[in-house]
Amino acid sequence: MQQPLRFAPASVRTIDGAELLRDAEVARTATPVSSRGLPITLRGVRKSFGDNEVLRGIDLHIPAGQFVAIVGRSGCGKSTLLRLIAGLDAPDSGTIAFGDHDDARAQVRMMFQEPRLLPWARVLANVEVGLGAARRSPDARQHAEWALHEVELDAKRDQWPTVLSGGQKQRVALARALVSRPRVLAFDEPLGALDALTRITMQRLLERVWSDQGFTGILVTHDVAEAVTVADRVLVLEEGRIANDIQIDLKRPRSRGAAAVAALEEAILRDLLRDAADDKE
Ligand SMILES: Nc1ncnc2c1ncn2[C@@H]1O[C@H](COP(=O)(O)OP(=O)(O)O)[C@@H](O)[C@H]1O
Ligand SMILES: [Mg+2]
Q1: What are the φ and ψ backbone dihedral angles of 5, each rounded to 5 degrees?
Q2: pTM of the model
Q3: Which domains are delineated in the chain?
């Protein structure tokens, strides 16, 4: 069934590329029905560092189980926004709520560009670290084995991190983030240091794990193609605000070569570059 692309709400501008998608094959995005994810609502969130007003009023609702990508130029505040959502830092003003759950901060896990593995611990033990205090419980090992299986790395459980490839290290980091079954997973450019092919494999893995586990996903990436390939929705962060909010209603799995994916990517890139050009004037 064909559905029009739902582009940005009235308060944010739209992208010309929407036109290109009129005839594309589109479908309602498959946010998992059995989602365990938490909804996230930000209201008037502001954050400054000294005179640097980084976030200038973020209003945003992410439904439970949605996979959102955040793009924007370097230094625009993407990592700051993730840190606030993950509770690693506090906003100067505004609120961040996770549905009715008071303890939501405990349910948010982060994954970074650097895998941050403990070099003196084997792979399975590195995954157990993600359990926090629960790693001393009798079933910790079983949970870690489950998480390693989820990222298709069972065979490496007894290896040291140093012998792993970059992609394998990131899989361990993903398993460590998954092992506590978080209801929100925030990714800060997790694939940024990987080569192009490994990146594509990892994107598919992220998408599959999200669809299996049903967490709410927030992916910060500088790769617009990655955002359009894996996310339900792409937010463009600019000058401390959400400048564009684009629904990606394309069928999954999506291939980068597909015309609709390429058209959306190009439209978002053009928008980002136009803003860069405006700044120079
Ligand atoms: N702890 C901090 N102290 C001072 N300035 C910071 C801090 N964290 C981030 N910033 C500044 O906030 C701005 C946004 O940073 P960041 O969120 O890391 O951007 P992005 O992830 O989009 O590249 C940058 O100008 C950065 O220098
Ligand atoms: Mg960053």
Answers
A1: -65, 130
A2: 0.87
A3: 64-280 (3.40.50.300)
